[in-house]
Structure formats: structure tokens, C-alpha cells
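Hi Y.,

Following your request, here is the sequence exactly as I used it, all 430 residues.
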Amino acid sequence: MKHIIVFFFTLVALGTTAPVFAKSTAPSKIETEFSKQFKQAMRVNQIPGAAYAIVRGGRVSTIKAYGVRGQKNNKAIDKDTSFRLASVSKTFSAELAALMIEKKSFSWDDSIVDYIPEFKLKQPGQAEAITIKHVLSHSSGLMPNAFDGYLKGRFRFSHIISKFEALEPFCSPGACYGYQNVLFSFISEVFKRSTGKAYADLMQQMIFTPLAMNNASVGFDAYKNTINKAYPHVKVSRNGPWHQVRIKPDFYKVEAAAGINASITDMSKWLLAQLGHTPEVISGDLLKTVREPVVSTDKDIKSRTWKGTIDDAHYGIGWRVYQYKEDILYFHSGWVEGFRAVIAYSKDKQIGVVILANAESRSIDKLTVNFWRLLLKEPSVKATLLVKDIKPAKVTSLVKDIKPVKATQLMKKIKPVKTTRLVMNIRSSF
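Below is the corresponding structure, written out as C-alpha cells. Let me know if you'd prefer a different format.
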């Protein structure tokens, strides 16, 4: 029987009620080895702060914090420190949509135009063909990251939606993959117009409160008002040190795509829910629905992170779905200025991991892949964890899995000519 592993990548947090935390037990060999590699990767890459949790069965078996919230305040990160989840937020939004569908507020096959009639594309009928399921599985047929550039300005929903009238799909809805943030965030409007409630209120009512995710929140203001929070760090120069910077509201403008904040404790509870241990909140049928592969993402197979590890790749509803030999891995990651996050689990093996960091380091990707290789008894990739993010030429030639790939190679099938000028190149969460 296929083993299923689900990955959620973006800032993550760990919090569970008393019954799910394990009493003091000896860590497994995997946990012991991963702990060593985590500390080593943090030290070698000089990551200011991070936290991770491992869940086994119905309990949180490991939860650890490392470093400081920010270089300027030098306070230690703990299990309740909030991080930005960036695109890991998409996993929450997809499952909130599934919960509302269970309540019959709308359905997967409803056209997005049924709730947002002002949404139009270049040709008549094109917008009407895009369903809620297409939006939440990045299979709308539109060019990737449409209008993310506008998030840096004075973003208003009424303004940005009119921009879509200039776009024409490069494939039929459901036929190809194109990652989105602005379009994905339209689900917030669907929630509001179908229930009369704001996205943040529904998230609190339907997910955060029932799962006792006590530190979780939605939005820029909520983050600013949180005392125990991590601060973003970036590198000003290629070989320079990490610098703490001010948090920017850009991707908070698309809350459903990248606007959730949570601690490692909160995220451990979310991970337990994905493993099926809170069916009263997240049912087994709901989990089965969002895990189902929807659209192929075969370029992921040759990505610098997963090359040599996975044999097939799809996007489900809010989840990435990767296959390696007899195992199916479900994955999501998040990257927004100054933060990284990852969440991953195996349904059949009943184990999962979540990592949060307050720096834009690719070492988080390497740690994630290494965890699953350890679990699946693959050769160790310790060497890749010891390579700093900015590597001398002689070292990069030895690390095959992390060779950079030219953007043109990744985007051969999606080279819009006239429309690309409408979309600015920015570092978006993913």
C-alpha cells in the first residue's frame, strides 16, 4: 500500500492540547540524527532563529527552538514564538474551504464568477470556466504569479481584479499548472460573499479555536501586536551576514495565500490534524479530498530541492503531492521576505515534521529532504547540510542536488509575451 507524506512549507508553529504531547520518551534514531543535523545546519548557515517539531502517531514527540527572535532584541525563540507561515497559509485556506463546502456554503465546481461576478478575462466565457477547485489547486490556466507585483503598491481588491481583463489563459482550466497568490486569495471573497464573515473570523472559528492553536493569527496587524514574535532577516550582500529588517505588509494583502502567523506549538497541532487525529475538526473525508492530485507539476521532479528524490509530482488542493518509489509525499513550503517555513507528513507512516525559520535560507529545504530520506532509509545527505547558502565555486560543483537552474529552463511552456509586462518579478511566497 502506498505511504503518504504531506508537506506544508511556510512558517509553522507547534501547539497541542495535553493528550497529544508525549511523556518523556527516548527519541528514535531518526529524531536523534535530525536534531544533530538541524543544529549543524543552523550553526553553519548562521541562521538567527528557527524551531521544528516532529509528530509521531497521535503525539508530538519532539519540539525544539533555536536561536533568537531577532538580532536587535536578542530574545530567545521558544515554542510559542510566532513566525510568518507565508504560503503554508494555503494549506489552511484550502481546508477552510473544504469545511465550508461540508456546510454547503458553496461547492468545488462552482464558478468563481458565481461569487465574484466582476472577475473577467480577455475573452467572454473564460472567467466563467474557472472553478473554486481550479483556484485552490493552481490549475486556472493563467500565467503563474499573476499580478504579484502589485502587492508592493497600494493593493486594493477592486483595483487588482480589473487587471485580469487583459489576461488570456495559456491552457484550459484544469489542464496545466500555474502557481498563484492573488488569484488564490480570491477565496477570501468567496468566504465573505457566501457566509457574510471575514476570512480571519472564519479561520479563527473553524480551525484555530477548535484545534487550540492559541498563538495563531491572520494578518499584518495581528503580527505587529504579538509580543512573542520572530523578526525577518535577509542578506544584504551575497557573502554578508544576516540583517534584521522591518516586516513588510506586501503578502499580508493576500491573507488566504500568505497571511497566517503561527508558533511551532500551533503547527504541531495542525500537523496532528493532518495525520487524522482530530476528526471532530478535520474529517478523514476532508483530508482525502485535499490530498487528491489535481494537476501535474512535473518540473518539481528536477528542481534543485527534490531532484533524485521524487518520481512524480502534482498539486492537490492546498498541498503538493510527490511520489517516490512506493511512497507518496505531500508537501508545501513558504518563502516570504525574511522567513522560511515547511510542513510535511506521512499519513501511512504516521510521522510528520514542521520547520520555521526567521531567515531566507535554503538549508531549510535541505533539512526537509534529508528528514524524509532518513525515514525512507536513503543515503545520508549530511554533506549538503554543511554547505553554506553562499558557496564557493569548488564546493557547489560537489553538490548536485542544489545546482541553480536557469529561470528560462523552468518556464519554457509559460512564456507569455504581451502579458508578462503586467506582472512584476518579485520574490513571492511559494
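DSSP finds 14 helices and 14 strands in the chain.

Thanks again,
Q.
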